[in-house]
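Entry 0007
Protein: 2-dehydropantoate 2-reductase
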Amino acid sequence: MSSLAPEELNSISDMRFYVLGLGPIGCLLAHNLRSVLPRTHPVTLIQKTAKQAWTPQNAAAKITVENQGVRQSTDGFDIEVFDKHSGSGGGVRFNPKLSREESAGFTPSDGDLRTEPIEALFITTKAHSTAPALSHLAPRLTSRSTVVLLQNGMGLYEDLVQRIFRNPESRPHFILASNTHGAWLKSAFHVVHAGIGDITFGIVPDSRKRDFETSMADESKPLYERSLVLDDITRPDDPSFDQYRSLRHTVAVLQSLDALGCKWSPVADVQLAMRKKLVVNAIVNPLTALLGCRNGGLFKDESSQNMMRSIEADTQLWLDSLAPGVDKSQMSVGRVPKELGADALEREVLRVTHVTRGNMSSMLSDVRKNNPTEIDFLNGYLVRLGEQYNIPMPVNRALIQLVKMRCSIPIDQTF
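Output (structure tokens):
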């Protein structure tokens, strides 16, 4: 049963929700959006090319999610394909009646091209693919739009602000999310939900100085009774309601995704969760990519355990530098939140690799497919921050170079 209030559901009847990035997490998210929202609320899947869009599953507009052998399917999605000829960020309505060959050579008419503003966009692409995709869609994103970033690594929001959304007055609202679900694609649009986790999300502070976390400062209640409420974002009698309408409704929809364990938290808590996940991914992803093993193959021997601890030690001074009140020039060890302490991080790494022991990491998959990896948004992000804080990170630097060396050598090369 969805936790979305009926009156909230009725108020978003004219909103269309877009999903960009149809890997395992994107498909899992789209499936749950379609399961929760009535058919009067369109959910649109964005594909880069018509060739990618044309599959039997796409023709049926159907996504299947499998968990412990039980399959559930949702259909009724709309599909758009990037129009490379459009300067307005347009997307072409996908026509499943055309063959694969006809789709590839299809020239859209005005009736097939969508150029209206996008109100809500969920992005689950690889981190390095996000900026190019958003550059195409930017003409359709306004200050009233809401963008949800759900990716590995950190630094992506700052990269997008620097490269695409430099003007705070026209910048969309952003929601940052940290995901701990494990999933992999069995085939196109058939995702195996291998590890049940949760999604923690928070709203990036507003350039107009609106406080989205007012209720957390209510000192009339003990801290454990305080919670974030939608009216902190906006309410129907707010003169600026239209400016924040899509943000309120997107948060409400996220809160309704009970099957994904979505939780709206203060953005500081989300940053903490993202840092924790960053360190886990910066250990697991490059090691599996280099060793060619599934997640469960790691840390069964003393050498791989020592490597895990070396990477953790590499990051501890950076994590310590993020503790409130710490002067960069006078950092001291031991002030990190307990969730980011060495022992806690080691337990989390071992927990994640056990829960996802049968999974192939996204970085290993990218290496085997000769695709770009997310190493620059994982270990690369750590190294760049280390430079800002004058913290050497030799182990992370070495991992970056090793992964890039691995990517430069064909996986099937023989001598």
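Curator remark: The chain has 14 helices and 14 strands. The first strand starts at residue 17 and ends at 20.
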